[in-house]
From TrEMBL:
GO terms for molecular function: transferase activity. Pfam families: APH. It comes from Frankia torreyi. The keyword Transferase applies. The lineage of its organism: Bacteria, Bacillati, Actinomycetota, Actinomycetes, Frankiales. Residues 41-232 form the Aminoglycoside phosphotransferase domain. This is Putative aminoglycoside phosphotransferase. Keywords: Transferase. PANTHER family: AMINOGLYCOSIDE PHOSPHOTRANSFERASE-RELATED-RELATED (PTHR21310). CDD domains: ACAD10_11_N-like (cd05154).
Length: 455
C-alpha cells in the first residue's frame, strides 16, 4: 500500500468512527483527534443532550496481529466493569474499522510531579484492585467466552502458548535469543499450582488523579490465567514508572489476599514476559510495512531482550560485564547521514499524521547514522564472540544468525552460561546502535533484582 493510500484509508476510518459514535451514543461529535501511533486510537468529545462526554475509540494494529482478538479485549474489559473492577466503561463495538469505544478516564499513567506518599497510596490502591480482581469467580468470565485453559495449570500457560504460536507463525528469519530462552523455559517448566483468576497480565497500567487510583487501563492481553502473572509483568515497566520496592509490594499483596505469593512462579512468568515484545514484533522488524513504527519496536526489543538476558543471568548466578562499545569512525556517507538527520529534525508541520511519520523517519535516520559509525565493528565483534563459542563464524550477518540459532537448538542447555554472556554482549551492542551515545534511545534501564529469593 502506498503512503497516500494509507492516508486515504485513515481519513475514511475517521469519518466512519465519527458517524458510528454519533449513532451509537445518540449525540453529536463536537471535536476529535486521532492519535498517530502504531495502534489507532481516537479521542472524541460528543455532545449528548447538552452534556459533553469524552470517548476513546481503540482499534487494531495494522502491521501485526493481536495476541488476543480485539473483541476479546472489549469483552474482558466489560466484564471487569460489571464485576466492580475500576476500568473504563465500554460503550460498544464498531465493525468498520474494527474498534470499540469506551469512556475516557481522567488522570495520568506515571508519577511525574507526584510525591512519594502519593505514589505509595496510588500503588496500594492498584494492588487492592488486583487483589479484588484475582478473587473474582472465574465461571462468569469463562461462560461469557473469556479465553482460559482446561485447568488452572493450563490457564497459566495459555497466554504463553498464544505468544509463541504468533511468533512461530510469523517467523521469517533466525532469532537465536528467542530460541535460547524459550528452550530454557521448556527445560525448566512452571511449577504446578491451583491458582486461576481473571488477570490483566500486562500489569502496572493505570490512571490516577488527585492522589488516588482512577482506573486500570489497557487490558489487551487480559484473560483467565495465573494471578502471579500480574505480579511479574510490571517489573519491566518499573524501569520507567517506579512503583516502589517489589519486596514490599508482594508482601502487601499477600496481606490483601491472605495467601503467600509464589516467588518461583513470579520469576518464571517474569522471564517469559521479557520475551513478549520480540515475540510480537519479530515479523514487523524483519519485514516492516509502511505502517510499521520501526524504531519504536526496535527500541522496545533492545531494552526487553536485555532484560531477558539479565533475568536469566541472575537466576543462574552469572555476573555480567559491560561490553566495550566501538569508537565511531567516519565514512564517505557520514556527512550525508548527518545532513539527513538534521533535515528531518528541522521539518515542522501541523498535520499530526505527517509529524508522526517524520518522527519515525528521523529516529530511523539516526539509527542508520549510528550504524554507519560503529555497525561494522559491532558485526565483527559479534562474529568473534560466535567463533569463540562454536569454532567458526560465517562472514555474512544473516549466516551468523543462522549458525547461532542452529547451535542453540542443538545445545539443549550444555552451554547456558556461555550463551547468556554471549547474548548479553550482543544485545548491549545492539542497544548502542539505537541512536547516538547518550541518547534516550540508546539508554538501558536495569530492573529491580529478585535478590534474596534466588538460590
Amino acid at each position: 500500500m502506498a503512503a497516500s493510500d494509507a492516508r486515504d484509508t485513515e481519513l475514511k476510518d475517521d469519518g466512519r468512527v465519527i458517524a458510528w459514535l454519533e449513532s451509537l451514543l445518540g449525540g453529536q461529535v463536537v471535536s476529535w483527534e486521532r492519535q498517530p501511533r502504531w495502534r489507532p486510537m481516537w479521542f472524541v468529545d460528543i455532545d449528548r443532550g447538552g452534556a459533553t462526554e469524552r470517548v476513546v475509540v481503540r482499534g487494531e494494529r495494522s502491521d501485526t496481529s493481536l495476541i488476543f482478538p480485539l473483541e476479546h479485549e472489549m469483552l474482558f474489559q466489560r466484564l471487569l466493569d460489571e464485576h466492580g473492577i475500576p476500568v473504563p466503561h465500554v460503550h460498544g463495538w464498531c465493525d468498520e474499522p474494527r474498534s470499540y469505544a469506551m469512556a475516557a478516564v481522567p488522570g495520568r499513567p506515571d508519577f511525574a510531579d507526584t510525591t512519594t506518599e502519593q505514589r505509595r497510596v496510588v500503588v496500594d490502591e492498584y494492588l487492592q484492585a488486583l487483589a479484588r480482581m484475582h478473587q473474582l469467580p472465574v465461571e462468569p468470565f469463562k461462560a461469557a467466552g473469556v479465553i482460559s485453559g482446561t485447568s488452572p495449570n493450563d490457564s497459566a500457560m495459555i497466554g504463553v502458548r498464544r505468544f509463541e504460536q504468533h511468533y512461530r507463525s510469523s517467523k521469517v528469519r533466525p532469532d537465536p535469543l528467542m530460541e535460547f530462552v524459550l528452550g530454557w523455559l521448556r527445560r525448566h517448566p512452571l511449577p504446578a499450582s491451583d491458582r486461576e483468576a481473571p488477570i490483566v497480565w500486562d500489569s502496572g497500567q493505570f490512571h490516577h488523579a488527585d492522589g488516588h487510583l482512577v482506573a486500570l487501563v489497557d487490558v489487551e492481553i487480559g484473560h483467565i490465567g495465573d494471578p502471579m502473572m500480574d505480579l511479574a509483568a510490571w517489573r519491566m515497566r518499573d524501569t520507567v514508572i517506579p512503583y516502589g520496592e517489589f519486596t514490599t509490594l508482594y508482601d502487601r499483596y499477600a496481606e490483601l489476599t491472605s495467601r503467600p505469593v509464589d516467588l518461583a512462579a513470579i520469576q518464571w512468568h517474569h522471564l517469559f514476559f521479557t520475551l513478549t515484545n520480540q515475540l510480537s514484533f519479530h515479523n514487523p522488524l524483519a519485514r516492516p510495512t509502511l505502517d510499521t513504527d520501526y524504531m519504536t519496536y526496535a527500541q522496545w526489543v533492545s531494552e526487553t531482550n536485555l532484560h531477558a538476558v539479565e533475568t536469566l543471568a541472575e537466576y543462574l548466578g552469572i555476573d555480567l560485564e559491560p561490553v566495550e562499545i566501538p569508537e565511531p569512525v567516519s565514512s564517505p556517507v557520514s556527512t550525508p547521514h548527518q545532513h539527513l538527520s538534521r533535515s528531518l529534525r528541522s521539518i515542522s508541520v501541523e498535520d499530526p499524521y505527517v509529524t508522526y511519520q517524520i518522527r519515525i523517519a528521523f529516529r530511523l535516520a539516526r539509527h542508520l547514522e549510528r550504524a554507519d559509525q560503529i555497525g561494522a565493528a559491532v558485526t565483527e565483534a559479534d562474529r568473534e564472540d560466535l567463533a569463540r563459542l562454536t569454532g567458526h563464524a560465517p562472514k555474512n550477518w544473516d549466516e551468523c544468525e543462522t549458525a547461532l540459532e542452529n547451535f542453540v537448538l542443538a545445545d539443549e542447555g550444555r552451554h547456558d552460561a556461555e550463551l547468556v554472556v554471549l547474548f548479553h554482549r550482543r544485545w548491549q551492542r545492539y542497544k548502542a546502535l539505537m541512536g547516538p551515545a547518550g541518547s534516550a534511545m540508546a539508554a538501558h534501564h536495569t530492573m529491580q533484582p529478585f535478590g534474596r529469593w534466588l538460590g
